[in-house]
Every structure is written in structure tokens, then in C-alpha cells.
Amino acid sequence: MGADQNIVWQDAVASALEWWRDAGIDSLADETPRDWFATPTPPPAPKRVVANQPAAPIVVPLPATLDAFLAWRTGPDAPEAGWNGGTPLAAQGSPAAELMVLVDTPERDDGARLLDGAAGRLFDRMLAAVGHARETVYLASLCTVRPLAGRIAPEVEERLGEIARHYVALVAPKRLLILGNAASRALLAMDVTHARGSLRRVNQLPAIHEHTTEAVASFHPRLLLERPAQKAEAWRDLQMLIGGTGS
């Protein structure tokens, strides 16, 4: 007689499935016809997503006229618009003045105008020593709102410098008095200690004006209040400003 023909089908099916699994078959084919010899299509490459990637900054051209620039400078689109330093302080005096004065920031004790406190009183005496008053100069600031720390952050200094150069080009003064380190770096690309002592020349932007402004860098009045011994050096700077010759 032949072999025992009594087959337990459950065991047979389990044995076949185990064999297929050992052979690497882990899925069943459906009833849809397919070309098993076709080259498989690679899946699309996943998109690379960088979390918290900042959007590229939108560079908006600076206003091309002085009136438009002054309106923009204290408006909601200026770099300082979001600072918590109070109301922006606009420039003072006439843009037609021969002498423009650029400081770094408003002072802590400034009220409705730039240099309104102790540093401003010393500033007034400095102007008087060279035959000027606030009414005969154009006084502006590198930033219109005082930073909370009292200093301009490095990440905005370059942008404010670009704005200041554009500003001076629009005003096109005959002479420029630069007071303080931040203002000196913005216009002359060097600290006051290196910039002072010589008559500097600020080349205007050709698209606006082609003439050159003579500039003198000196110590800010707030520093002179802290270091009175530097007043003699500041006086020499002012003499150079009105004399027009460098040392």
C-alpha cells in the first residue's frame, strides 16, 4: 500500500507559508495583471525641509528724494520701527545748511529733540566755539530711536550705515561733523580714534550727487563729559572743521 494519504491541510498551509517567508516572500500578488520583468520606477525624492528656515530678506530700495526719505526714516518701515525706545526723533535744522552733524543715537535724557540734555548743552558750546548754533547746522542721528542697551547692535549697524551714507548723499552738505564711534564707522569705516586728526572726504553716491563732502570725526559730547581731558583734542578737531585743512 502506498504512503498515508491522510493530510492535515492546516499544517500543510502553515508549512508552505513558512517556506515562502524563509524564501523572502512577504506579500501576496493581487489579481491585477502586471509586468514582472519591467524596470521598477524609483519613488520621488523626498523634499528637503529645513525647520525654522528664515525667509530671505526683502531689500527695498531707499527713497530717492530727501522728502520721501525723511518721511520713510521715521515711519513704520524704518529699521527702528519695532524698537522699544520711544518716539523716533527726526533730524533738526535745515538740510540746506552747509554743516551737517551726525551722531549715533538719541541720548537717554533727550526729550523732543536730539542732544537735549547735558550732552546737548556741551554740544551747544562746541558749536558756538566755531561760530555756529543749532539754527545754522543740520543735526541728524544714525538711528532715530535709542537702543535699549544704549548701543547699536552689530547685526543692524551695517544697514544703518548704508542708510546714513544714502542720507548724507541726499543732503549733500559742504562739511560733515561726525561724532562718536558708531557714526564714524558708518561713514568712514573706522573708529573715531583712527579717523580723527585728519580731514576726511566722503564720496557721494554718483546716482544722487557727484561732489565730495569734507568730513571731520571727533568725540561725542557724552564722552567728553566723562573724560574732560579729551576736550583739547576735540577743540583741534573743530578747528580743522572750520579751517578745512588736515594735520
UniProtKB/TrEMBL annotation:
Superkingdom classification of source: Bacteria
Keywords: 4Fe-4S, DNA damage, DNA repair, Hydrolase, Iron, Iron-sulfur, Metal-binding
Record Pfam families: UDG (PF03167)
One BP term from GO: DNA repair
Location of the Uracil-DNA glycosylase-like domain: 90-239
An example molecular function term from Gene Ontology annotations: metal ion binding
PANTHER family noted in UniProt: TYPE-4 URACIL-DNA GLYCOSYLASE (PTHR33693:SF1), TYPE-5 URACIL-DNA GLYCOSYLASE (PTHR33693)
Protein name, entry field: Uracil-DNA glycosylase
Source species taxonomy: Bacteria, Pseudomonadati, Pseudomonadota, Alphaproteobacteria, Sphingomonadales
